C-alpha cells in the first residue's frame, strides 16, 4: 500500500425529508446565492422546499448552469456573487451544478484571470466561498469531494481541477428527490459511478485489500441495483443504495493508497467537449475498449474483477478477461446506454480530433503507469467505432 | 435504509515515516501536552521521533495512562492541563491513550463535575481542547471517531461517551510502528476490530447494501491478514491492511443507515471492569455465545454472513449458522485468543455480578431491537463458561 493522506470534512445529511434540516447548516446572517440548472427544481417542487426550509434568510438565485458547466455561464454568476457580496453558495442540482458552484466559489475570490484556476488544475486557488449542496442526480460524487470539471466552450476544453477548500460544507442526499429523473439520466449516473470505481480499482495490484473490497462492493451494488432503478423507479431503497454508491465512489476513500487510472475519463472529456455526448455515455464507449487494449498491463486486476465482481471462475485467463469486458459492456447496454461511437452517429473523424485535443491539454501520459500515449488512445478509439 | 448523518473531519496521515509530517498539523504557538501509556514509546524510539518532528514547540508530557484508562489517572492529567494552560493534546499510543485523551480534552474545559461527561454519555460536553493522535496499536478505531470508553476504578464502571467535538484533528497511522507490538496485543486488536464490524453488520436486513459489502470486505480482510500478522510480524502490507481495517471498522461509515447491536461490547465492558480481562478477549468470549442465543432474531444476516464471509453455502439454515459461529470462534482461537471464560479462570460467579452491574448502568435494553435484557445476558454468559 502506498502512503496517503485522507481528509473529507463534508457533512452528509442522508434520507427522506432532510432538506428541512438545511437551516442548521448555514449561518443565519449569510447572504446566500442558490445556484441551479435548467429549472427542473422549480417544476418538481425542490426549489420551493429549499426556500421554505430557509425562512428569514437573504437568498438570491442564479439558474441556467448547463450540463458540462461552461466557463462562460459561470463567469456571469461570479459577477452576481461579487456585485451582491454573496458569502454562501447553495448548489441545488446534479454534478454539473455542483461542479460549476465549486468554480464560482473559487473564482469569486480569485485575484487574476479566473480561467487560471482550471488551467493550473486548481493550484492557484487561495480562498473559496463556503458552499453546501442539495443533490438531485447521483452520479459524479461531487457532493462529497473537492474536485470539479469545467468546460470552456469557445476552445472546446473540458478540464478538471481540485483544491482542499472545495469540499462542500454539507450535502443533502434525499433519494426521493431522484424519483422524477428521466431513466436516461439515472442510467448515465450509474455508468458514471461504475467507471469512477473502475478507474480507482482496475489498475495493478498494490495490496490495498480494503480498498479492493470496498470497490468491489460498490460495483456489485451498482450491478444489482442499477437495472432496478429503471424498472422500479419509486423503490426507495434502490435509489438510496445508488445515491450512496455514487457518493462513496468518488469521495476519495476507495482511491487512497492505491494506483489510479483516469485515462477513460480524460478521453471521454475530449469526446464530450467535441461532440457534446453525455459524460456517462462517453465512458460506456471508451471503457470496454480501453480495458481490452490494456489487458496485459491490467491482467491481474482484470482477473480479480472477473472473479469477484462477475463470478467468472472458468476458462483460461484470456477467456475470463474477455468475458469480464463483455459483461461490463452488457451491463452498460442493459442500462440503456449503447457502447459504440456509431450508436451516437460519431464516425472515425473524431479520432484525430480527440488526439489533437489531448495533446493541446498535455494529456499525453495518462493511466496508472503514465504510459497511455496519444498513439495508444488512437488504437482504443478505433475499437470504439 | 434509515436516514442518517455522516460527518468525520479527522485527517489521516497514513504510511511509513508520516510522523515527520506532524508539525504541519499543529499550530506553531501551541502549548502541547503529549499523553502516553506505559512508556513503551520511550523504549522503541517513537517518543524521540515525535519530539524531533516538533522542533521549537512548547511540549510537556504526561505518561502512565493505563489500559482501560481510569478516571482517577485522567483527572491527574486534567490538573496538569489546567495548571499549565495546555491548548493542544497529542495522544501517542493505542485506543486507551486516545480514549483517555478525549476525556482529558473535554474534562479540562468542563465546568462542573467531570464524571458527568461519562455519566451522561457525553451530553454535557460544551467545549473540548483540540487534539491529534499518533496511533501505535490498531484496534479501537478511536483515532478516527468521536467516542471513548473510560473506567471508574473505584466503582468498577466502564462506560462509553461520544461528542462531535471529540474527533481528532489528525491521526498519524504508520504501520511500521506496530512491528514491535507483542503478538497478543495484535491479536486483541484484530478481534476487537472484527467485533466492531460485526456489531454494525450482524443485526437484521435494512437494505444497506453498500454498508453490508463494506463490512464484509473488512471481515474478509481481517480473516486473511490477521493470522499473517502473527506469523510475519514485519510484513508491511499486512500491518497496513490491518491498521486501515481497524480505523475503518469504527469511523462511523459502515454503521450509517443500518441497525447496530453493541450488546457484546456492553457485556464485555462489565467483564473487563470486574476482572480486568483484556477488552478483545471479553469480546472473543461473549460474541459466539451471543450469536448462538440470538440466532433467531439474527437469522437472515447470520446466513448472509455464513455465505459471503465464510463461503458456507451447503447444509440447512441451522447448520450454516452453527458453522458460521464455529468459524468465528475458530478464527479468534487461531489468533491465540481463547473463547471461554474458563480459559481465563473466570467461573460462574461472574454472572450475577455482570447482571448486577448492567442494571446499575441502566444497560437493560441492549441490542439492535433493545430486547437484550439482563435475563438474556444471563443465558449468554452461561454459554460462555
How would you characterize the overall build of this protein?
The structure is a homodimer of 385-residue chains. Chain A has 385 residues and is α/β, with parallel strands linked by helices. Chain A has 2 domains: 11-177, Rossmann fold (3-Layer(aba) Sandwich); 183-384, Dehydroquinate synthase-like - alpha domain (Dehydroquinate synthase-like, alpha domain), CATH 1.20.1090.10. Chain A has 14 helices and 8 strands. In chain A, the strands form 2 sheets. A 6-stranded parallel β-sheet of chain A has the order 1-8-5-4-2-3, with helices on both faces. In chain A, strands 6-7 form a two-stranded antiparallel ribbon. In chain A, a hairpin with a 4-residue loop joins strand 6 and strand 7 (157-162). In chain A, helix 6 runs parallel beside helix 10 and helix 7 (209-231) packs antiparallel against helix 8 (236-249). The interface between A and B is large, with 42 and 42 residues. Strand 1 of chain A pairs antiparallel with strand 1 of chain B.
Amino acid at each position: 500500500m502506498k502512503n496517503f493522506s485522507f481528509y473529507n470534512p463534508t457533512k452528509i445529511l442522508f434520507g427522506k425529508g432532510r432538506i428541512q434540516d438545511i437551516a442548521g447548516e448555514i449561518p443565519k446572517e449569510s447572504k446566500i446565492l442558490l445556484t441551479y440548472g435548467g429549472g427542473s427544481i422549480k417544476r418538481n417542487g425542490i426549489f420551493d422546499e429549499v426556500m421554505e426550509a430557509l425562512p428569514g434568510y437573504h437568498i438570491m438565485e442564479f439558474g441556467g448552469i448547463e450540463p458540462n458547466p461552461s466557463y462562460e455561464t459561470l463567469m456571469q454568476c461570479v459577477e452576481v456573487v461579487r456585485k451582491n457580496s454573496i458569502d454562501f453558495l447553495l448548489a441545488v442540482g446534479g454534478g454539473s451544478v455542483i461542479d460549476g458552484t465549486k468554480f464560482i466559489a473559487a473564482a469569486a475570490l480569485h485575484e487574476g484571470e479566473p480561467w487560471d484556476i482550471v488551467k493550473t488544475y486548481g493550484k492557484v486557488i487561495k480562498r473559496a466561498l463556503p458552499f453546501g449542496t442539495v443533490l438531485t442526480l447521483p452520479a459524479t460524487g461531487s457532493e462529497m469531494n473537492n474536485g470539479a470539471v469545467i468546460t470552456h466552450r469557445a476552445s472546446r476544453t473540458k478540464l478538471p481541477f481540485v483544491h482542499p477548500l472545495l469540499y462542500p460544507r454539507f450535502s443533502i442526499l434525499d433519494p426521493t428527490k431522484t424519483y422524477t429523473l428521466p431513466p436516461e439520466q439515472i442510467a448515465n449516473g450509474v455508468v458514471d459511478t461504475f467507471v469512477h470505481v473502475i478507474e480507482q480499482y482496475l489498475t495493478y495490484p498494490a495490496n490495498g485489500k480494503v480498498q479492493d473490497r470496498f470497490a468491489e462492493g460498490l460495483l456489485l451494488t451498482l450491478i444489482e441495483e442499477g437495472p432496478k432503478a429503471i424498472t422500479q423507479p419509486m423503490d426507495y431503497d434502490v435509489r438510496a443504495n445508488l445515491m450512496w454508491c455514487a457518493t462513496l465512489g468518488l469521495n476519495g476513500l476507495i482511491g487512497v493508497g492505491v494506483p489510479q487510472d483516469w485515462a477513460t475519463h480524460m478521453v471521454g472529456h475530449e469526446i464530450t467537449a467535441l461532440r457534446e455526448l453525455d459524460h456517462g455515455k462517453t465512458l460506456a464507449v471508451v471503457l470496454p475498449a480501453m480495458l481490452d487494449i490494456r489487458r496485459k498491463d491490467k491482467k491481474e486486476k482484470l482477473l480479480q474483477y472477473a472473479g469477484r465482481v462477475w463470478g467468472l471462475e472458468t476458462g483460461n485467463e484470456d477467456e475470463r478477461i474477455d468475458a469480464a469486458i463483455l459483461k461490463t459492456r452488457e451491463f452498460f447496454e442493459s442500462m440503456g446506454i449503447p457502447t459504440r461511437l456509431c450508436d451516437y452517429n460519431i464516425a472515425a473523424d473524431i479520432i484525430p480530433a480527440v488526439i489533437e485535443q489531448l495533446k493541446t491539454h498535455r494529456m499525453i501520459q495518462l493511466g496508472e503507469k503514465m504510459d497511455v500515449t496519444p498513439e495508444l488512445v488512437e488504437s482504443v478509439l478505433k475499437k470504439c467505432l
